[in-house]
Amino acid sequence: MMKPKNVPAAGPDMSLQEFEAERDRVCGDFADHELAKQPGQLGRSEYVLVGILLAVSFALVLLLQ
Asked: Which domain holds residue 35?
């Protein structure tokens, strides 16, 4: 994993409290990014709609054979 260039490297002289604060900040940023809806990501209602369309198209294929 590459380290971002705009974040200064933490030296070995970091205290436990500083380390835990930095860890919590990084983990919080990562969690916020993961929970945010990404571009092109479908929501729950869109998944339901796609599932219904697939079921209807499957039924039509079976009927038309």
From this structure: 16-64
What pTM, to 2 d.p., does this model score?
A: 0.44
Per the CB < 8 A criterion, the answer to whether 53 and 45 are in contact is: no
Q: How far apart are the first and last CA of the chain?
A: 52
Structure tokens at 46: 């869109």
Do the Cβ atoms of 9 and 3 come closer than 8 Å?
yes
What tens digit of pLDDT does each residue of 34-45 get? 777 777 888 889
| Residue 52 falls inside a structural domain | yes
Q: How many domains does the chain have?
A: 1
Token pair in block for residue 27: 């983990």
